[in-house]
Input
Amino acid sequence: NAGVMQNPRHLVRRRGQEARLRCSPMKGHSHVYWYRQLPEEGLKFMVYLQKENIIDESGMPKERFSAEFPKEGPSILRIQQVVRGDSAAYFCASSPGQVSGNTIYFGEGSWLTVV
Amino acid sequence: ILNVEQSPQSLHVQEGDSTNFTCSFPSSNFYALHWYRWETAKSPEALFVMTLNGDEKKKGRISATLNTKEGYSYLYIKGSQPEDSATYLCASLMEYGNKLVFGAGTILRVKS
Output
């Protein structure tokens, strides 16, 4: 049973380009979360999605960031017109149900560097 | 603002020592407390999910306790080994939803 798969593991983008990060949850998991770790900071919640629905995007910057979890295929975190401050590690996690009673399982992260 | 605080920030111990660290969280509207172990270049690995005041959980040499009334959890490692070296994260679910609020972590280094 494969774990949470994220790709790419490392991504370099120039300022103004778009970055797309993909996350395939564990088999049987329909809840996906994206977290961001900025340099010298802890993990910060960005967005929580279930299949085809955004449940909580309170941690997402209002502009340039979007996330989706389509009926088929991986969840995608999209960052348009990247800036240097977007350089961070982006972690995806999944769970079979609500967080309170369930462990969430993390992927190994995608490291975005904006040059 | 809901803050989860962890202390100490880092800890260096000798192999065989027992150690513990603290996670503090706001005690109001508490739903769950999660502990993770995070090795460099790997994904955070879930250790415990705790929900009830007075909960104690154990996994091998690692155990954790929870006090929801005063808002803290302790993680204990008995007889530390070099392979225990990692960052230990706690995260609190402060309202029924799915947004875990993480502490900054405690970095543990075990010297052989």
